[in-house]
Amino acid sequence: MNFRRPLPTPLEPGYQQESVWQYPRPPALENCELEVKVFLQGVLVAETNSALRVLETSHPPTFYLPPEDVDMSFFTQTASSSFCEWKGSATYWDVAVGDQVVRRGSWSYQSPNESFVALQRHFSFYPSLFDCFVSGSAVQPQPGEFYGGWVTEDVVGPFKGEPGSEFW
Q: For the structural domain made of 18-71+116-156, what CATH number should be given?
């Protein structure tokens, strides 16, 4: 008896698009020189042209911004953490602008695993909690509350986190 569920049929990428089904597993890390901006309540909390992208099969890219391009005056480290088999232990940050506090809205890897050492102290953000932009285009959040991928017009899925994707 076969209990494996079939993988979804990847969408065909259009002109200048990528399919997340062409991304590797284990994930790859690449430099990204696109303009990346993150806002909370209309206030710019991070901006860079030196992001890193993590690319993993079935997931939209996750953008990580270097610490020098993040306004740390809005950030407070929490005691929360999580573990990624590829990247290591993540540290979570609350981000506050005025009266608005986004609990655990950002995360970083203070001491990532060796293959992801370039991510050290870089910050990512949940696009469901912030207004994120890549090259001026608004980012949509990856489906599902757990994931932090950034869905842009440059990527096609289907994406991990959509209904029925629990066993991909």
A: 2.170.150.40
What's the distance, CA 109 to chain centroid? 13
Place of tokens 């990624």: 84
Amino acid at 2: N
Kindly report the pTM of this predicted structure.
0.95
* 18-67 pLDDT, tens digit each: 999 999 999 999 999 999 999 999 999 999 999 999 999 999 999 999 99
- Beta partners for 32? 51
The rounded distance, in Å, linking the Cα atoms of 96 and 77 is 11
Per-residue pLDDT of 96-118, as tens digits, reads 999 999 999 999 999 999 999 99
Q: How far apart are CA 27 and CA 165, in angstroms?
A: 18
C-alpha distances (whole Å) from 76 to each of 96, 107, 145 are 8, 11, 22
Instruction: Compute CA distances 17 → 14, 21, 61, whole Å.
Output: 5, 12, 12
Query: Which of 145, 155, 141, 146 has its CA nearest to residue 32?
Result: 155
Q: Where are the domains of the chain?
A: 18-71+116-156
Say if residue 35 is exposed, middle or buried (CB neighbours under 10 Å; 0-12, 13-18, 19+).
Answer: middle
